[in-house]
Amino acid sequence: MTFVATSIAEVRAAVDDWRGQKDIIGLVPTMGALHAGHGALIDAARRECQRVVVSVFVNPTQFNQRQDFDLYPRALSSDIEFCQQRGADLVFAPSVSAMYPHAMRAFVEVERLTDHLCGKFRPGHFRGVTTVVAKLFHIVEPHRAYFGRKDAQQRAVIRRMVADLHFPVEIEGIETVREPDGLALSSRNQRLGPQERSVAPALYRALCRAAEMIRSGVSDPEGIRRAAIAGLTRLPEFRIEYFEIVDPEDLQPMAEVKTPALVAAAAWLGQTRLIDNVLVLTPRPGL
Ligand code: AMP
Questions:
Q1: Strand 90-92 versus strand 3-5 pairing type
Q2: To test the ligand 1 pocket, which listed residue (30, 34, 35, 38) has its Cβ within 8 A of the most ligand atoms?
Q3: Residue 185 and residue 182: Cα distance in Å, rounded?
Q4: What is the DSSP annotation of 10-58?
Q5: Integer angstrom CA distances of residue 79 from 76, 191, 283
Q6: Which of 77, 78, 103, 140 has the fewest CB atoms below 10 angstroms from its CB?
Q7: Which residues touch 18 (CB under 8 Å, ≥6 apart)?
Q8: Which residue among 151, 171, 278 has the greatest number of ligand 1 atoms within 8 angstroms of its CB, and so is best to mutate?
């Protein structure tokens, strides 16, 4: 039975009870319009924790464009059903006024790790993310929290927040779930037109091409970048926002590429912004 809570008090009452029973609590923070990518996070939490909380909250403070916030898909009743089917114990779906009852004067900000990739193009985005995730951690007090590797920068930034501010929570990372043609599942994919959808997997192909070059020992970031994005730049539908090779921990660009390396990209297809990344852990054996 999945309980749906809209107030912070209801969540606190439930988790206090579970903590009293010494249950391990897992939190899966989401913005809803749930798909199999979110499902993989909920399934991992279900396997590893006695209690699973899924938060569904389209957080206005992490959107740097009002239109993107307004257009973000919302599907609460099917999300609740989705969580029920996957055996979540609690869905926390607060209103904006429940999460932000008055003007905010306190924020959480992670420096340096937010200077590149999405941080460079979405001013204020990560401050919105870290602040809302810190709130959720204080409300739910989970032992573990589950994040997708699709949002690699988000996960690295949250890991750093947790480490630097001593949050007593383990941050887990779940592999990106993809469509059969390679496109990473995203709530935003619903907004792609048929032509955009048909070319969308080219983003992942470009990342894989870069990863392959890194694995084979190519170390010049500009050379890798140019070769990798050649396929994308030929497609008129795509507008590349960034395509960078960075250190996976501090997210700084590498002057000379060595493993481990994170290749991450964002690109616009019409009105829809897609992000994706590939982590290259080791060179090809024999190199
Ligand atoms: P969102 O609702 O897009 O904010 O995502 C909520 C969580 O689900 C984040 O930790 C995402 O990284 C994760 N997530 C989103 N899409 C995927 C995917 N395709 N595979 C794995 N995790 C995902």
A1: parallel
A2: 38
A3: 9
A4: HHHHHHHHHHHTT--EEEEEE-SS--HHHHHHHHHHHHH-SEEEEEE--
A5: 5, 18, 40
A6: 103
A7: 25, 50, 51, 89
A8: 151
Nearest CA to ligand 1 atom 11: 148
The position carrying tokens 């939190």 is 27
Q: Which atom of ligand 1 is nearest to the CA of 188?
A: 3
Q: Give the global pTM.
A: 0.97
Looking up tokens 């992942």 gives 204
Question: Which residues does ligand 1 sit against, CB inside 6 Å?
Answer: 30-31, 37-38, 40-41, 147-148, 150-151, 174, 176-177, 184-187
Residue nearest to atom 14 of ligand 1 (CA): 148
- Sort 75 into a burial class: Cβ within 10 Å, 0-12 / 13-18 / 19+: middle
**87 contact partners, CB below 8 Å, separation of at least 6:** 42, 46, 52
Task: For the chain, 287 residues long, give each residue's pLDDT as a single digit of tens.
Answer: 899 999 999 999 999 999 999 999 999 999 999 999 999 999 999 999 999 999 999 999 999 899 989 999 999 999 999 999 999 999 999 999 999 999 999 999 999 999 999 999 999 999 999 999 999 999 999 999 999 999 999 999 999 999 999 999 999 999 999 999 999 999 999 999 999 999 999 999 999 999 999 999 999 999 999 999 999 999 999 999 999 999 999 999 999 999 999 999 999 999 999 999 999 998 887 76
Question: Coil, strand, or helix at residue 218?
Answer: coil
Which structure tokens are listed for 271? 């009105």
Nearest CA to ligand 1 atom 10: 147
